[in-house]
Amino acid sequence: MVVMASLHTLPSPLPTTTTSSSSESSDNKSLVITRRRAIVSGSTVAVASLLQLSNPISSLYSAIALQQQDEELDEEEDRIVRLFQETSPSVVFIKDLELAKIPKSSSQEVTLAEDEDAKVEGTGSGFIWDKFGHIVTNYHVVDKLATDQSGLQRCKVFLVDARGTSFYKEGKIVGIDPAYDIAVLKVDVEGYELKPVVLGTSRDLRVGQSCFAIGNPFGYENTLTTGVVSGLGREIPSPNGRAIRGAIQTDAAINAGNSGGPLIDSYGHVIGVNTATFTRKGTGVSSGVNFAIPIDTVVRTVPYLIVYGTPYSDRF
Fold first, then answer.
1. Is residue 181 annotated as part of the catalytic site, yes or no?
2. Residue 279 buriedness (CB in 10 A; 0-12 / 13-18 / 19+)
3. What are phi and psi of 253, to 5 degrees?
4. What GO biological process term is on the record, naming one (predicted)?
């Protein structure tokens, strides 16, 4: 290649005038040297190629490296699969229903099952707080039920017990805190054993660490999305217009129906409640900028909602 380049850069053909023998000799020597260099260069490339092809040790090391990389990928996949399998039974699917008429039966469960005219007004997610049937979700997921004065609003909660049995119950509102977009529901769990989530902490989170969202986007139950903590200490609006401070920003996909579901860390510990996403204007498509209420805020709020029905700030 070098030789060809050199040849292409030679000046125009030599003039036909006679040159001295010493000049011819010098040119011939130069040409021979150039050719020899070309031959040596080509031989070097050929030898190097043959050595590479005939070196079984190098090939073996490459194969081992690829195998180790595949094994590491397999281990990472297995870890995420186990993480989902262990955590998803603690996540619930919530449907907001509007009945066509006020039921005559005192059994609301029968009404929810048999009323074909019930209109699904929205879906969301939540997670099991304790074995007594308390469910934590976003206030905006159940705000119609919380403000209902017609008696037609219902909340249907789909759960899985510790043995893997799927069932559903009507959810009753225990307490709400619109300032932090948090609500607590209660379902009758007689005869079932629930698996509550494992609570983590949000105070020591670091940007860049892995996180996972489990929920029911667009009604697709038990959906897992993965990402990282993209930012900390964000400020997002609450349903009552106040600011929720300290929110977690993540690129783990959060869409309509994910609201109220858990954001978990690599150990399966809940670090936040998925609550909001920015969408591209006019498209409704998530921009990848998503937010969760930090679990430390939830831990301070939920016990008061369970006991008193109102947040701590309303009582003191």
1. yes
2. middle
3. -60, 130
4. proteolysis
First to last CA, the chain: 85
Tell me which of 143, 181, 251, 296 is the catalytic residue. Answer: 181
Q: Is 259 a catalytic residue?
A: yes
pLDDT tens digits for 240-261?
888 999 999 999 999 889 999 9
**Catalytic option among 202, 230, 259, 286:** 259
CA distance to 41, 52, 54, 84, per residue, from 45 (Å):
6, 11, 14, 53
Assigned token pair, 269: 């510990």
Structure tokens at 127: 């997670």
Question: pTM for the complete prediction?
Answer: 0.74
Residue 116: pLDDT band with limits 50, 70, 90? low
Question: Catalytic residue at 269?
Answer: no
Residue 44: both structure tokens together = 């070097």
Count of residues making up the chain: 316
Q: What average pLDDT does the segment 12-34 reach?
A: 42
Per DSSP, the three-state class of 86 is helix
DSSP for residue 180:
G
- Active-site position among 90, 140, 230, 296: 140
